[in-house]
What does this fold into?
Amino acid sequence: MNPTLLILTMLVTYLVTAIPTGVLLARVMGFEDVRRSGSGNIGATNVYRVAGKLPGTLTLVGDVFKGALPLLIITHWLGPTPGQLGLLALIAIIGHCYPVYLQFRGGKGVATGLGIFLVLSPMSVLLAALLFGATVAISRYISLGSVLAALSIPIFILFLGFPREIFAGSLGIALLIVWRHRSNLRRLLDGTENRFKT
It folds into this structure.
């Protein structure tokens, strides 16, 4: 992509991934603003707790989709270099975590990161999903499973031989997800983090 097209693509990617799926779904389905209940987060876990299984599941699917769709279109139609794709992947996660529509107060990036990683390296996602499932099954902490899975993906991408620009982009995404979970990590250390209940 030439510089002008790259800048335009960055802007569109940000605006798409900044769409607050959970807030919109809860509102359309007649529930209260999820930012005012539970953890106050706009992601699928809090929507599940506040509004129930259906809105939570739809939020999860929507957040994954909005992370994957822009990058799928970009990779198939615009032919980005590895460096451009790594940069656009970072822009996508920033859009979700810091959406202009909500005064830059967004989600923690797990579901949208999943959508992004599915485009970058499906095999890495599969391996990370196994780690996530095992962690949550043993600990019942979704936050712990999410952080460990996110951190594992750049490692898998590195060992699978992807270009260093893709590794760098995936590492940036993983570190942002960890940063967005810093309050959860503090609660884990304090023993006050909520466990997942089916």
In short: The chain has a mean pLDDT of 92.
